[in-house]
Amino acid sequence: MKEFFGFGGYNRIPEGYMSWQHLTFVTILMVIMVTLAIYLGMKNRYKLASDKNKVLIWAAILIDGFELFKIILCCFRGNDPFGWLYNLPLFLCSIQLITIPLAAFSKGRVKESALDFVFIFGILGAVLGTYAAGQNYAAYPVLSFDNVVSGITHSISGFSSLYIAISGMASMKRKNLPITFSILFGFAIAAYIANITLDYNYMFLMAGDGTPYDIIYNLVNGNKVIYPLSVILLFVVYIFVFHTIYSVCTSRSTLTTKETETSQKRV
Fold first, then answer.
1. Rounded to an integer, what distance in angstroms lies between the CA atom of residue 197 and that of residue 88?
2. How does DSSP classify residue 141?
3. Which of 12, 211, 237, 251 has the most beta carbons within 10 angstroms of its beta carbon?
4. Residue with more model confidence, 7 or 105
5. CB–CB of 208/215 below 8 Å?
6. DSSP assignment, residue 107?
7. CA 36, chain centre distance (Å)
């Protein structure tokens, strides 16, 4: 247990990024994530909004509970009362620590925008934070506290995204886009300020750090202005593309449903 929680540092040699151990572990998490999202999403699809929301409440409690436990343990493990400064929810994935509770407990347009934000970025964060997490799996053993908790919290984000879609909780109203962008830009500004102050790399705005962001970092030769702006621009483009694809898919689904109903009336 001492080795699992990393007291005194990990003695085991990390199996490595994209090793079969890494891929097996995160694939198991993804299978559990998708299975639960489909089961609970289909089960609650035609229930009242309050019943659908209960699942998100549990997701919010679990994701914040695991993260809080990690922060406390990391401070205690490193004998550093200020260790929490390097565990702030300022990565794209960890923004869900705020937006999932917002989606679960708020109301009105704030709730709609939070639901859409989780829907848009939850599944992306789940994939990037498991399969593409080179910074974690190259540094720590696969079955270690750091990687297990990270895998669980990213999986909860992905689960919430899929559950929102399958249960029909996503609104994806264009009028809520300003709030969605405000959430993104607000966290990006906070992350950049924290990076400069703490000499850290929140939201990977300073460097790729072994993740796919390295592709952008290398393309711009690590330019300290162009690189972070390119990362933010990538998020903006992703939101617009996601909205466009969703709109096209739902429009076709609605059209098909109307055509079916018309055919049935004729018969």
1. 13
2. -
3. 211
4. 105
5. yes
6. -
7. 17
8 compared with 167, residue with greater pLDDT: 167
Q: Measuring CA to CA, how many Å separate 105 from each of 55, 56, 174? A: 12, 9, 22
Both tokens of 206, joined, read: 């300073």
* Average pLDDT of the segment spanning 234-240: 93
Mean of the per-residue pLDDT values of the chain: 89
Structure tokens given for 192? 């950049």
Model pLDDT for residues 10-31, shown as the tens digit of each residue? 889 999 999 999 999 999 999 9
Q: Provide the phi-psi class of 108: left if phi over 0, else alpha when psi is between -120 and 50, else beta.
A: left
Tokens in use for 254? 């609605």
**pLDDT above 50 for 255:** no
Nearest to 190 by CA among 97, 92, 75: 92
Q: Give the residue-averaged pLDDT of 147-166.
A: 96
Alpha-carbon 224 to chain mean position: 25
Determine how many CB atoms are found less than 10 A away from the CB of residue 125: 23
Query: How confident is residue 265, by pLDDT bands cut at 50, 70 and 90?
Result: low
Distance in angstroms (rounded) separating the CA atoms of residues 194 and 188: 10
Please give the torsion angle defined by the CA atoms of residues 58, 34, 26 and 133, in that order, rounded to the nearest 10 degrees: -80
Residue 223 dihedral angles phi and psi, to the nearest 5°: -55, 125
Long-range contacts at 46-52 (CB < 8 A, ≥ 24 apart): 49/169, 52/167, 52/168, 52/169
Q: How far apart are the first and last CA of the chain?
A: 68
Residue 212 has pLDDT above 90, yes or no: no
Give the amino acid at 256.
T
For residue 153 the two structure tokens come to 């919290």
**Alpha-helix runs per DSSP H in 13-169:** 20-44, 49-77, 96-105, 108-128, 134-137, 145-167
102 and 53 in contact (C-beta within 8 Å)? no
